[in-house]
Amino acid sequence: MIYSSVKKETGSVQSREDLPIRYDLYSPVTTKTRSFPIILFLHGFKGFKDWGAFPDACEYLARHGFCVLAFNFSKNGVGEKMLEFGQPELFAQETLSSDLNDVGDIISHLKNGELRSDQVMINTDIIGIIGHSRGGHTAVAAAAEYPGIQAIVTWSAVANYNKRWSDEMVNDWKNKGFTEIENSRTGQTFKLEKVVYDDAIEHAGRLMASQRVKELHIPALFIAAKDDEAVPASESKKLFRACPSDDKEIKLIQDTGHTFGTAHPFEDENFPEPFDELLESTETWFLEHLK
Known about the structure:
single chain; alpha/beta; Rossmann fold; two-stranded antiparallel ribbon; 10 strands
């Protein structure tokens, strides 16, 4: 069933470090009393929940009968203004552990009723998860970490984040205690403190998707862009091969890159064909495995 309208509710809950996790909850508008499965949406590195076509994607999935919760990681550097990186001091300390803990905190708030919808019932016993890029890396770790997650879809996921640190970055961390990266979209330069590197190395067994995917026995769909230069499709292939689930698939979308034809801001009336294909595959997977 496709619902004609969707309601978006915004709010925030606290992380275990007492930082706000700001979210948007999309849900179908219906006059009937019923509950809906929930899908968690995880953005990527230097990303945020309102990036590009992400809000439209969440609305699309809600129209197809899901509650969709998109949230900013508590240390992603985007504050109350939502579209600007106004908290670079938090971005500098955003670790893979803090992101993974945020997912756990979100699930806890859903389970205890502190995060809920005013207009529909959320079935917190049926949870799916989507992650793009680094968010896909975290989604794999989260699906292994938190038993409530019952199905996963990754979009251009990173397989092993520790292989993405360049020699220059590692030398900076060891010699200066920080490294710097540029946000090519905004032109901003951001610091990354050494804690980011230390956390990833010290807790690799818990954090690396290439390790945690070996624990996944839930339905898992790995989607990648064939011409992705930021995160090669080979990363998704590695995750697919290592996943022991009896219900797994990999899908390569042709003639597109890391964001499947979308950009920020996204103001087009229709999705680009690759992104449309991405969403249709995602929707189909969750309709099959979360209902």
